[in-house]
Amino acid sequence: MVLDDAPASTDVGNRVFGDRLPLALRFVEHLTTSGVERGLIGPREAARIWDRHVLNCAVVAELVPDGSRLVDVGSGAGLPGIPLSLARPDLGIVLVEPLARRVEWLREVIADLGLLVEVERGRAEEASTRRRWEGADVVTARAVAPLARLAGWCLPLLRPGGVMLAVKGVTASSEIERDGAAVRRAGGGQARIERCGSGIVDPPSTVIVVERVRGTGSDRARRKRG
Ligand SMILES: C[S@@+](CC[C@H](N)C(=O)[O-])C[C@H]1O[C@@H](n2cnc3c(N)ncnc32)[C@H](O)[C@@H]1O
Fold it and tell me: Can you tell me which atom of ligand 1 is nearest the CA of 102?
């Protein structure tokens, strides 16, 4: 597989992944071979995996405090969770994904790369997922759901003061306009937009940042049940 964006890989890759660049390139190899064959990545995406997917996700690390416990909701082919783990070995990461064949692929790839990343088969909003992974410092989600639904799924997984990072595209500001009130009802503060990876990816990655400022609907339901 020849990557259209391969020339960028060494310079920029060293800056982002340091001595883990070979592992990042091996992840690209998994995505472009078994990832495509097993339907986790569209065949048309294969040639632009490096910029559009791996770097675009890894640069979100700019928004993640040192040593964070991070839950990646709807990880699919490990995006953004695996690039974040490769760029930032200080993070404790769990990938939450409901589809069995994706979970199987993720576990194989994580074992091959030798990463300390956990995989939870389940949906973010399920009680079992919440019980196991609540109290996270950071929850990420990329291409999973509209902002209002994401807030309802992700904010209950955060500790108060933790942040949800929703990796979005051009829809970011209109989603905030449309869903800002729903985000606040779900326990979030004022959503804002950050751009990550200037000089590394073009365009920079657009991320909606929401802090958990209050108890969430799931806390209230739990209190009611006693
Ligand atoms: C379009 S894919 C995006 C995958 C990856 N985040 C990316 O950027 O390529 C959406 C993923 O979210 C997962 N998903 C959908 N609903 C979910 C939920 N309620 N909780 C966790 N994951 C969910 C799907 O199974 C799918 O793998």
Answer: 27
What is the value of pTM for the model shown?
0.94
Nearest CA to ligand 1 atom 10: 144
> From CA 143, how far away is CA 164, in angstroms rounded?
14
Q: Ligand 1 centroid to 224 CA: how many Å?
A: 30
Instruction: Supply angle C-alpha 214, 185, 72, rounded to 5.
Output: 70
Distance of alpha carbon 222 from the chain centroid: 27
- What is the end-to-end Cα distance of the chain in Å, rounded? 56
Query: Ligand 1: which atom is nearest the Cα of residue 125?
Result: 19
Burial label for 42, CB within 10 Å (0-12, 13-18, 19+), is exposed
Residue 186 sits at φ, ψ, to 5 deg, of -80, 0
Q: Is 111 exposed, middle or buried (0-12, 13-18, 19+ CB in 10 A)?
A: exposed
Regions of the chain where pLDDT drops below 50: 1-2, 7-8
CB count within 10 Å of CB 167 equals 21
Domains of the chain (ranges, CATH numbers): 54-225 (3.40.50.150)
pLDDT in tens, 162-217: 999 999 999 999 999 999 999 999 999 999 999 999 999 999 999 999 999 987 76
